[in-house]
Specification:
- This protein is mainly alpha-helical and 371 residues long.
- It has helices at 5-30, 46-71, 92-111, 114-120, 124-135, 142-164, 174-202, 209-231, 251-260, 262-288, 291-311, 319-335, 344-366; strands at residues 32-34, 40-42.
- The protein has a two-stranded antiparallel sheet.
- The two termini are 46 Å apart.
Length: 371
Amino acid sequence: MAWTGYQKFLALMMVITGSINTLSTKWADKLESKGSDGEIRPFNHPFLQAATMFLGEILCLVTFKLIYFKTRNTGGHALTQGNQNFNPFILMPAAMFDLIGTSIMYIGLTLTYASSFQMFRGSIILFVAVFSTTFLDRKIVSREWAGIAGVLLGLVIVGATDAIYQAPGEAKGRNSVITGDMLIIVAQVVSACQMVYEEKYVTGLNIPSMQAVGWEGIFGFSVLSGLLVIFYWIPAPSHFGNNPRGTVEDAIDGLIQIGNNPLLFVAVIGTIISIAFFNFAGISVTKEQSATSRMVLDSIRTFFIWMVSLAVSWQVFHWQHLVGFSILLLGMFKYNGVLPECNLFRRNTDNVTQEEERGVVNAEADNPQDV
């Protein structure tokens, strides 16, 4: 079925805003600004960046409420259809999984490349499949296992390339990249827990998607705001607590850095706005098309991020990355049933069946008494 103009617009919005979200977050990590101690240093505040992500999710709830009140007397809107009577705290565990997973991912992003960050996020397919068979009693078919194998092979190639090919002129160190890649994989385990929880306990409640995302943003931002106060006083190793106080997170220093560098402010605002539009576009694509279409578009976003990272010299081109990305992309397509199935065996089976049927007909014609 051909896509409508609106569906094409949503797909384009999802790819662009999703790419902007990852790139703007990485751009912020690349920028330097004067901190609270008067010294210029790189912006390294993963927990503060996670808080901005939750602010973007809260914008989804604000948008939901505006649409709801505007259309409630005219039959409502497709984005507001669903159950409005539910206990918001049912979303609290999902928000906590989101908080932990996002924070770990942003720490990993500061240590590795933006393209590797996006590629390793594809490992979530494996963990969702395993958790689904364990907690949702879902059966994973052979096509999906083949896709998972392709994704894992692609990730191994990407990870090995990051670990082995570290030229002296490259900005990242080998230990930094390996640690960052591993943290991103750990984050996907947590994110998979979030998805399985939402499917088991939230989907059946028929909560509007934008409303669910918004409530998760409120819970996540509220809890993380309290944690930022605690992290302000907890000492951290020098390579982790890269702030004047040497603590896990110095949100005050981060806000001062944002205020002292207009480009850093633009990058943070880009993260907030892009995550809101990305969530809206992703939800809309799922409703207008399918979750498969959303996964395919997310794969295209990975390629776009990789190309931009190469163009702005955030990383050096290695042909092994291209091989790994291609295998990973094919694995995703295979898992989601986008690749055409091989029907040779099926055609042979159909031919045999047709020949058997013709044989039966001929036998009946030769022996009419058996009819």
